[in-house]
Design brief:
This protein has 177 residues and is α/β, with parallel strands linked by helices. It has 4 helices and 9 strands; from the N terminus they run E-E-E-H-E-H-E-E-H-H-E-E-E.
Length: 177
């Protein structure tokens, strides 16, 4: 969990792969949590996605920054799965906006907008595509390449920075305005 004192927490999981009653392999999974930084791999991404929502409860707009291939879309798919999205998820690179439904517990169904601004030139093009409508709705918006239209984001947008640590590990930093 997020440590408000700023100290890092290390959670270690022992994963055992089995086939029937035979143990095939064992491995340790490490999840580092430092302030508002999370270090993860594909093996721990589901846990990180669950923690992400707990750390950001009540926020609805998230701007994901990272170089091409850093894992923005992969993380967003994990975040959608953690929210209970059952639909097939794809990259919105050409569609610009993908909309997914989810239901948490007994609460009313919600929406997640997965938005990819990579192909857009500027804020005006984003507005024409309907991005601003999504950002100012009461629904969750997960936006890749926000630097393409920085002026359209609400003040309470959480900015998520994903950095490549190595070929299998990423570091995620969460900055809130």
């Amino acid at each position: 969990m997020y440590n408000k004192s700023g100290l890092c927490l290390l959670q270690i999981y022992h994963a055992i792969s089995t086939e029937g009653s035979n143990i095939l392999a064992t491995r340790l999974l490490f999840v580092y949590i430092c302030g508002m930084e999370l270090i993860y791999s594909l093996e721990t991404i589901a846990e990180i996605a669950t923690r992400f929502w707990k750390l950001n409860e009540g926020l609805t707009v998230f701007a994901f920054h990272g170089e091409m291939g850093a894992g923005k879309t992969t993380l967003i798919h994990a975040l959608c799965e953690a929210k209970g999205v059952k639909e097939v998820m794809g990259s919105p690179t050409f569609a610009i906006i993908n909309e997914y439904g989810f239901k948490e517990g007994t609460s009313e169904a919600g929406k997640i907008f997965h938005i990819d601004l990579y192909r857009l030139q500027d804020e005006e093009e984003a507005i024409r595509a309907g991005v601003e409508d999504c950002l100012y709705s009461d629904h969750i918006s997960l936006v890749e390449w926000p630097e393409r239209a920085p002026g359209i984001f609400p003040d309470n947008t959480a900015h998520i920075y994903i950095n490549v640590v190595n070929s299998s590990t990423r570091k995620l930093r969460i900055d809130r305005n």
